[in-house]
Prior knowledge:
By secondary structure, chain A is of the alpha+beta class. Chain A is 18% helix and 24% strand. The longest helix of chain A is centred in the last third of the chain and has 11 residues, at 93-103.
Amino acid sequence: MFYINCPYCDEYRDEEEFAPKGQAHIARPAEPESCSDEEWGAYLFFRDNPRGVHHELWVHALGCRKFFNITRNSASYEIFETYRMGEQPQVTAQSLADKAKQSGAQAADGGWQTVGSRPENETLNKSSDTSDATSKEGTA
Amino acid sequence: MQRYSGFGLVKHALSHHANWQRQWRNPTPKKQYDVIIVGGGGHGLATAYYLAKNHGIKNVAVVEKGWLGGGNTARNTTIVRSNYLWDESARLYDHSLDLWKGLSQELNYNVMFSQRGVMNLGHNLQDMRDIQRRVHANRLNGIDSEVILADQIKEIVPIIDTSKRARYPILGASWQKTAGVARHDAVAWGYARAADALGVDILQNTEVTGFKIRDGQVYGIHTNRGDIESKTIGCVTAGNSGVVAGMAGLKLPLESHPLQALVSEPMKPILDTVVMSNHVHGYMSQSDKGDLVIGAGINGYLGYGQRGSYYTVEHTLQAIVEMFPTLSRVRMNRQWGGIVDTCADACPILSKTKVKGLFFNCGWGTGGFKATTGSGHVFAASLAKGEMHPLAAPFSIDRFNTGALVDEHGAAGVAH
């Protein structure tokens, strides 16, 4: 259950007043006519699905009815920030990782039941060449 | 494998049931396998079983980060049906239903498959038109499905409120008699025991942490118990598929959401079929133990927390009490969530990927349990041959770029 601070109402309200609308910051292709099938498919269907920090679009459906963004941890459900449309997030996966590094704290993984992609995975994968497999679909 | 039988039960009773054999071994990982299955849920174990049984590939490992069937296999509401609208999905789910029918005998394990019928209710004219369209499509595909009206529903389920006073009056339903329920964790255990007997290594508490990929060909996995090599790897990781795909540098058109279910206190037999309503959004059956098994909706936000929001449970129980007013004072016993991986078209992904040798079987979303048998069967055939089985071919990941979606959302009577 979330207790969400609507950045327009500037007030904490119950989750039931809000509706999630998926990933935030998806830009419509500037020239849809010249999109390849891959680009168009990526725009329509391929979404970030991280276990961790996620920027998402919500609407205050039973309040001011305005759209806004939330940065949230999809595993612990912690809300880091809410911000208005057109603004950029202050908290990102990168900024949190940097902060954890500085303080020397080891990020909790929430127990093995919720274990997923961990930072050490990247170093494990380094020995192998993943260049062929690297996803070309960019997200805005 | 020690076969189970009535005689065996009597024999073991004489020794106070102290000498039952373990159902599967707990092997140490070998360095190399012919096929590795990532994910030890129902679908993964079924895949391993059919690989060994039908294709003679017995040097197989099932790698599971937790315990067998600890994810969605043991968290669903156990409904098995095949009344899907489109030809592609109807074929796949009906193939599964065929395999369910003989499963207990095949595995020598009682999966308690009970064909008690499933009805999908219609509450307004448009619902009834959709139901008729789907029932006609089902019948053309050879699936037993019929339209029944309110008085027939009342005859099958006496506790349901079919009066005109109801806020959402029940006008009729689609009715699939051969559909039903099964004991979900027995399915995982049964497949595990049968696969183990054929030589499959089931590696629990073994978490995949990365893939070994060279020149676009996968050749192994990194795990917390060391590296394991194989040139064919099938990932059957449900809600975590996006995370696992990310380790191979792939992106899947999936979103992971929490889906909740709950059970009531046990009570005397009151419901001997499965009632689903898409319109008021609630579905229910009664387990052999006596508790009412109730499925709630998904939470619309991305979540890996295996828990959902309280109001989702509240809305579901409102729908249940709307349909069954007599249950208004029943207390709920337990509630839980699972992580479902949903596709835009509510159909699964059974597909090769850009990485050679790396296959994915995921995206079953809110209704994968019913397909455990068929999914394992066709995925095993695909892994064995290196080419997708004809029943699996329409569910390629390419459909999200070609546009050839199998649009079951809102068309299949899916209750989500």
